[in-house]
Every structure is written in C-alpha cells, then in structure tokens.
Design brief:
Length: 249
C-alpha cells in the first residue's frame, strides 16, 4: 500500500514538472509589441501590445453580436499559448505565422461590467487575425496590421505637458519624469506614473490611481503618443473595470 502511495506521488510530481516546463516554454513566446490598427465587428479599433498583453481601444460605439446594446467597449486579453502553423493564410512566411489562444475581458462602460471572452487566431510580426467569442456566439473577427506610429521613439520629454481630457473634460499634467496628476469633470482625481519599456517602440506603461469618484482604484495599462495630433491615448484596467483616455495637448 505504501509503495502504491509513493508511486502515485512520484507520478504526480513528474506530471507537474512536465506541465510547468510546457508553460515556461509558452511563456517565453511573445506577440509583437507596438501599435496596430484594424477592424473589429465592423468598427475601427487600435490595439496596443507589450509582452503578451494587449489593450484594444475603440473610438465608436460597437454594434456587435457580443453586445446586447450599442455601447462603447474595450477589450483586454492575454495571449496564453502560441505555436507555429502551416501557412495557408497569406499573412507571412511559414516560419513567422503563429497560432495563438487566450482569454479576454470585454468591458461595457454603460453598465460598468466585465465579461470574459475567448481569443484565438494567428499573428505575424506585422498583423493579427483574431476571433473574439463568448459562450453565446461564435465570435467577431478582429483584423489588424502594424501602424507606422509603432516605430516612433518613445520619450518622456515629448509627453511633458498639460492635456485636455477628451469626452469627459478636465485636465491631466505629465511632468518630465512621467508623473501624472489631474482631475476631470466627473469629480475623479488622478495620480500616476509612466515609464518606457523600450524607447524604440511607441508604447508607454501606465500606472494610474483614481480617487474621489465611482471609478476609484489602482490601474495599470498601456499608452501611445500620436505625434501628428499631439494626442496621448491610453487604456488601463484592474479587476473591476477598464478605462480609456484620450488626452489632447
């Protein structure tokens, strides 16, 4: 009896080690970092990526089979697995096309709720073909290609300034060290910090604290600076909600 127990324990440990090794191998694979533009559910979207995390931002209300009403939504998803596939998609050479799956969170700002979705599809260094689905439907397609703004250098010096918060009003100030301060017309106050993971890619990591309003909490996310319009665009999230900001200098 004791021998059987010991044998079972050994098998369990070996299985755990194999699973861990597989997860480590997958965790070393990353989607390309940068700014991508495209279409999701017939609407224009922008996706900001760093590591295996992506934030999807939309300018307009999305009419989608994922939504019961015409509301603005944001999606945050984590790529959880990737592997090479045979190339029959005409989106890259056979050794650069990768299959991915993941989990996402779809946010409805009108009713302040998050809903889990499944993500699967393919990507190359310059494009994504994804399906975003939940338990009630087969999903909406997301087609993305790399933006030329991805190659713009990221610097705190160019972010420095006072910005008007589009859509909700108010202002945010970013100093030359990346510190954020400000307030909006809904009574929210802001403090935060910005850092640059790679100066060659137009992506900024955002850490934001919101207080004195219904959105109070600590958030983290990604942003990008639009040199052509002096807009700083970012999306941040926590366990309860996703927030999207467009700032005009």
């Amino acid at each position: 009896m004791m021998i059987k127990i010991i044998y079972s324990l050994i098998i369990s440990v070996l299985v755990a080690v194999l699973i861990s090794c597989g997860n480590d191998e997958n965790s070393n694979k990353q989607i390309p970092s940068g700014v991508f533009n495209g279409i999701f559910a017939k609407e224009e979207v922008m996706i900001l990526t760093w590591g295996n995390t992506a934030h999807v931002l939309s300018n307009n209300d999305i009419t989608s089979i994922l939504s019961s009403s015409n509301t603005q939504m944001e999606i945050n998803f984590l790529i959880s697995d990737s592997e090479p596939i045979d190339n029959d998609l005409d989106i890259g050479s056979a050794d650069t096309v990768m299959h991915i799956t993941g989990l996402g969170r779809l946010y409805d700002s009108h009713i302040d709720t998050l809903r889990e979705v499944n993500v699967f599809g393919w990507f190359t260094e310059t494009s994504f073909i994804l399906t975003i689905a939940d338990a009630d439907n087969d999903g909406d397609k997301m087609l993305l290609s790399a933006s030329t703004t991805s190659n713009n250098n990221a610097t705190l010096a160019q972010l420095k300034g006072t910005y008007f918060i589009l859509d909700i009003g108010g202002s945010m100030t970013i100093d030359n060290t990346g510190l954020i301060s400000g307030s909006d017309n809904n009574g929210c106050e802001y403090e935060g910090d910005i850092n640059i993971p790679n100066t060659d890619i137009n992506i900024y990591k955002i850490f934001l604290t919101v207080f004195n309003c219904s959105s109070s909490g600590h958030y983290g996310g990604l942003g990008t600076f639009d040199h052509s319009s002096d807009n700083f665009i970012f999306s941040v999230s926590n366990k309860k909600r996703l927030l999207q900001y467009r700032l005009l200098k």
